[in-house]
Amino acid sequence: MPVNYYVGIDVSKADFYASFDEVSSSIRYENTKKGINTFLREMNKRFYTNQNTIIGLESTASYHLLLCVICTDLGYTVNVINPLTVKTQNQTSLRRVKHDAKDASLIRYCLTQGTGYPFHETTETLTVRSLVRQRNSLATILLKLKRQIKDIEHKQYCLGTTLPNTYQDIRPLLEKKSKELEKILKTHRTQEQRLLQSIPGIGPLTAAAFLSEVQDIKRFATPKQLTAYIGLDSRVHQSGTSIHGKGYISKRGNKILRTRLYNAVSVAVLRPNTFQVFFQKKMAEGKPYKVALIATMNKMARVVHSVWTNNQPFRDYYYNPPKSSKSTEA
To answer: Global pTM?
Structure first.
């Protein structure tokens, strides 16, 4: 059955607005099971079924989760849209308006243009994602904590006295919890983790991050779609017919994957492998360090797509280690 109806929803912590068509005003509902059931009854009154309707909403931390789970369990297709897409659409309007009811209409319009990815979360994917993000948050806190500890130690040295260092007391607990999370992450989808870890530079945390954020590589038919999801695609600049060019990477994708991939490539280029060869080639071409590194990130993302799609471990066919040669001097 063809899709005839599009419903745009703007979700917040306490409520959500639903835009059912281009004519009527958006309707407000409570973001609770009771409120969602009221919304579904309105859908039934309008004969918006799971066969002829697509629902679209923004990715908003965890506030959109309840609505997504209930609607997908009932067979509806729910597309999760990047908030930046809606923001960009709002900026194209001559009269910019920031209001939940208006946002719902904008989301509906974006949905009609085919934006967003279908919600296919499961208990396992949500669990792994939560663990990955908790671990990333702890890593950020620990990094800040270490800087603060060093700062206090320097002050003690300068003043020649002892200062209370609460940060030093907290640090062991956070490090312990971080290691516990890493241990749990290693138990999820172990076969796929081993597959991704066959790629130089990719360790357990990066592999787990890809599994939690991408979920299923079949979502991305081409490597280009994956790089765009990560935010490694270039921003295109065009002015009339005379100026054409590509600028910096868009950074509009998944920040967690972009950070993990940056770390993976930074490690990979330090050892003999195809990524080091590619990176050194870019540097030899005169590219700045970070530009060469981002180009290598693109290459690694394409390799991730290939390895994961084909379900085959990475084999470095393109790198030939230098052969040791014996001296011919007398």
So the answer is: 0.71
